């Protein structure tokens, strides 16, 4: 088909090229993605359930972690089910509206997670640097407002990033060299002037990512300074352990997203970017519950308590 014919045709669907390989390789990818998705959903739902059932986990840190678990589940659900579908059916078509919807979900969850990571860093800062005033400064109303603010800011950012892309024209080709509808490979297919869309997208990316990173870094610089002043080595170790998980997630998440999106223009997109996208959209939502909660001693005690209650209720039901 000639270029002139492409220019006369408005694209109504796209084709996700995904991962190359034989059909057997596609089946292998399907199995891997399926296992990751099931584990991600189960692990994050486990966190939400345990935190809601155990009274002594009704504290700010676990309230924020529950919100983070919801975001991780949402992020995985926005990407993986469609990927599973075309891996097993080999039907890689996604509609124009479906592509924009996926783009909006992914780029709404991402900023929300950045805002929530910033809030969690602030929470740890208050808990460690102002332990006596912490309960007053981070009460339930403040926690609720901070979470609502994070969600509203994140999804407002997502819509702001998506609308300029939705206004672009796509005349062909319609092959997206990615496993989901991401901004850079999508905008490179547009036959419109993409300068406004790129300016809005990358300006917001710079502001959201770098400002949240600055606030998080400032919070942890004060935290580390305070921890080093604790006279007891046991106290220092306990304080560091409560922050190590959050710092690990911050480094992984910020590192991959900065490499992908903190750039001046929608430049060259290669297979290495697919791997990075795979990491922050598929792997990280699985790692977060493992890093944050399932290796946390207090959470494991709570999980054991839930298991014991469940076993008792089952035994009671059987005897009755």
Overview features:
320 residues; mainly alpha; three-stranded mixed beta sheet; globular; disordered N terminus
Secondary structure tally: strands? 3
Helices and strands, in order, run as: HEHHEHHHEHHHHH
How far apart lie the N and C ends?
A: 73 Å
User: What is the makeup of the main sheet?
Assistant: 3 strands, mixed
Oligomer: single chain
Arithmetic mean of pLDDT: 83
Q: How would the global form be characterised?
A: globular
- Rg estimate, integer Å: 22 Å
The percentage helix is: over 70%
Spatial order of strands in the largest sheet: 2-1-3
Structural class: mainly alpha
- Percentage beta strand: under 5%
Low-confidence stretches: 1-8
What would you note in describing this structure?
The protein has 320 residues and is mainly alpha-helical. The protein contains eleven helices and three strands, in the order H-E-H-H-E-H-H-H-E-H-H-H-H-H. The chain has a three-stranded mixed sheet. The protein starts with a helix and ends with a helix. The relative contact order is 0.14.
